[in-house]
Amino acid sequence: MSESLLITGAAQLLTLRGEVPRRGSSLSKLGLIKEGALLVREGKILAVGPRTQVEKHAAARRAEKLDVGGRVVLPGFVDSHTHLIHAASRAEEYELKIQGASYEEIARKGGGILNSAKKLRAATADALKRRARAALQEFASYGTTTVEAKSGYGLDVASELKILALHRELNAEQPLEIVSTFLGAHTVPAEFRGAPGGAQRYIKLLAEQLLPEVINGRLAEFCDVFCDRGAFTRKESEQILIEGKLHGLAPRVHAEQLSHTGATQLAVELGAASCDHLERVNAADIRALAKSRTVATLLPGCDFHLGLKQYAPARKLIEAGAIVALATDYNPGTSPTMSMPMILSLACTQLRMAPAEAVAAATINAACALRREKRIGSLEAGKQADLAVFEVEDYREIPYYFGMNRCWMTMKRGEIIYMQD
Ligand code: NIG
Ligand code: FE
Question: Which of 117, 157, 246, 255 is the most exposed place for a label (fewest CB within 10 A)?
């Protein structure tokens, strides 16, 4: 076997080189090369550029060759917000929502996150792993090469640790990179509700029992909170995120999804890596995000699945200069999809993002949200050879087609991890 790989035949090669992070008008800069080529060695990009140039590289002559036949090549998608580990779908709630029940009404009756927590606690680690493994293969089949994964359906010490341990095991056992986030503060578990002070008692458990275990076991890199009506208040969220930060976990926040709580301002104040959802941000929040390094991650799959009409104000965020990213929010309650191309379709039609902006938001800016922009998110010499090849002639066809999969091949660290039949 030759040690390098020369990839040619890219009608369009989207490098995403250039300004990092992408703000404002730079979000639509794709660094597009026609008839592009890539030289890969030991999982990394050795050279990238027009074919004639890359072929001059000494290692290109001896390299194994892969012709992608006039398709479009881009960095693998970075899905920076998922709830990967859960036990089952919530199709029964989906039907109730179609009949008119709101997400919050269902949650108040013990459905929602509590429904998923009940199912997860009863599931074996093996069953959870099988489901997540199949999901990861499906993520790869849509061109995704890195997946952030949150705990949060355990809500007790043993079950949260069970989820986080699975993140680590899956990271070692399959090719996608999993970035682990601790979301013990997804909601107050059933056994802490009823009596007053339940939220505080649960926060105490998170801080005194769970976080030390998470840190000792090096089980997470980020700490997230669902700061919303029916979950945690801004004040409680602050307490939890500060506690996480003291333990070395960088904050990220579920913010302004169902109601306006001030979570965005909190995220910016704490220097959070990202602030996600943002359907209900106001003008001051947008200004604060624009001045900050906190990535504004939009999750249009939620609004689509819940049938909500109010999407996040993507155009205002972009025009103000915020760092906009896109993610699936794969989860059983609000966004059961693993398809980043579908999210790009929604970003274009519902958020009025240009196809080029959607691609940059799902690659280089999403890499920033995971603080991995030096390693992934663009195709440049020295970076990881994480890429997706689409069966299209023009990159705009990636969001243009919807509800079908045009991904032809996915590569992680130079290895083919998905190939269309
Ligand atoms: O990102 N908003 C909070 N968490 C998830 C939904 C969780 C659930 O309903 O299971 C979200 O939308
Ligand atoms: Fe989420």
Answer: 246
